[in-house]
Amino acid sequence: MTEKKAVAKKVAGNSAKNATPKATLNARTKTPPKQATPPPRDPQALALDGQQGDTFPQTKAKAATKASINAVMVINAYQSNIMGKDVDITELVTSMRAKFKAVNDGDLSNLENMLVGQATALQTMFTSLAQRAASQEYLKQYQTYTVLALKAQAQSRATISALADLKYPKQAATFVNQANISSGHQQVNNGSSSGQTDISTQTSAHQKPGFSEQYTQVQASAGDFQTAPNKLLEAQDAKRLDIGAQAAAGRANQGLETVGAVHRA
Fold it and tell me: DSSP assignment of 221-236, as one string?
């Protein structure tokens, strides 16, 4: 028994020597603390980029009038059934600003693609509504679907016309500086090299012979044309308007003499 106890103590001593301290073991196996992750950002919260020195109310006021933000607010209100309600509106604003810059730089390809897509979508709506109208049995439903189909067709045609105007712009309007209105046969040539206005008449086949002889070709210089100023009549003493000779006296035109003193009032 004594030997067994001695062997047991010896084994226990060796185990105690070989054992790793508890504190050292905990230090080796301790995991680093987890870093705190920031909460996910709300995709419906718009991040405003204000200028240095602006207050928060000023930043909000400027953002409320920006075309990109206004457009994104409308897009976000209608696109929930397309891409879902978790679309990041801040990224939408960034994408819209990129489109604005492309248009400002003269790149209209995105607008052209948009019009082509709209015209095609409207054509699809027209086809679907026309097919539904053809399958209706009652007149009221038939008329309703037919009207809607024709409206979609008209909008598709208008979109195609807008695309054609965008691809091939029409010439700029011509502003007329002079309008010449005449009831007769008159030809007016403006902008000649001599700076004069040439007015000539031409005789058509149904006019009487000699009609054009009543008119002559007029050459008038626009620079020499001036309106005569108004002048006072009888600027000189004893100058009368009636410059004819005195008529002889008669029954209708009797000679007048100075009234005598007796007949004065």
Answer: ETTT--PPPP--TT-S
What single-letter DSSP state applies at residue 200?
E
Residue 129: how many other CB atoms lie within 10 Å: 20
Token pair belonging to 10: 């010896």
SS3 246: coil
Find the angle CA(256)-CA(257)-CA(259) to the nearest 5 degrees. Answer: 120
Task: Provide φ and ψ at 168, rounded to 5°.
Answer: -130, 85
Query: Are 214 and 186 a contacting pair, CB within 8 Å?
Result: no
What's the CA gap between 69 and 94, in Å, rounded?
9
**Segments of the chain assigned E as strands:** 186-189, 196-201, 218-221
Amino acid at the residue 218: V
Q: Please provide the distance, in angstroms rounded to a whole number, between the alpha carbons at the two ends of the chain.
A: 185
Beta strands 196-201; 186-189: pairing state? antiparallel
3-class SS of residue 230: coil
This prediction's pTM:
0.49
Distance CA 51, CA 243 (A): 87
- pLDDT tens-digit map of 72-112: 999 999 988 888 888 899 999 999 999 999 999 999 999 99
199 contact partners, CB below 8 Å, separation of at least 6? 186, 187, 188, 217, 218, 220
Distances (CA, A) of 96 to 77, 140, 174: 15, 43, 36
Please say whether the beta carbons of 219 and 193 come within 8 A: no
Phi-psi region of 7 (alpha: psi -120 to 50; beta: other; left: phi over 0): alpha
Of 69, 85, 68, residue with least CA distance to 77: 85
pLDDT tens-digit map of 48-66: 887 888 888 898 898 899 9
